[in-house]
Structures are given as C-alpha cells and as structure tokens.
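Need tokens for this chain, all 104 residues.
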Amino acid sequence: MKIKNVSWGLIPLIVTFLAITNPSEEEHIKHRAWQFKSDCQQNELTVPGKATCFVLSPLPHKTVEPLISNYSHHRNFIFFSTYTTDLWGLKTQTLGLGGQFFNL
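Here are the structure tokens for all 104 residues:
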C-alpha cells in the first residue's frame, strides 16, 4: 500500500519538473542555429535544401537565428513543446522536453 502512495506522490513532482523545464522558443532558435551545419551534412537533402545550406552555412550562428525564427512554428503543450522549422527546403521537427531538444 505504501508503494502506491509513493508512486502517486512522484507524479506531481515529475509533472512540475517537466512544466518548469519546458524549453522556450528562444532556446530552440539558438539550438537550431547550432544544429544547422550538422543538418546540412545529411545525405538525403533536396535540391532546395542543398541550396539553402550552400548559402547559409558560411554565415555565423547569430546571422542565421533571425531566419530560423521567421521560419519556425512553435506549439507549447505545457509539459513539452514541438517545433517545426522549414527553412527554404530544409525541414526539421524538434521536440523540447525536460530542457533538452530531440530531433524527430
């Protein structure tokens, strides 16, 4: 009986932790700017994706951030967030959970 009470007591703690550590849209933009060059090294890029990488890869991260911001869609589900970025043919989907980002 005590084991059930302990496990039910952990659920509010986990939910609170996830809500507090849900990454913001600004954090996602910074993360995506740093991931941009590794996204460009994928083998299965489309022609528009390759052109985007050719133009934007030499630019500094801070220069790419406003573009990512304009082409990103953020959905906040309180405990986690999803982000879809379609930057001129280079489409990525990311899950933000517990202060971390995971590519989908």
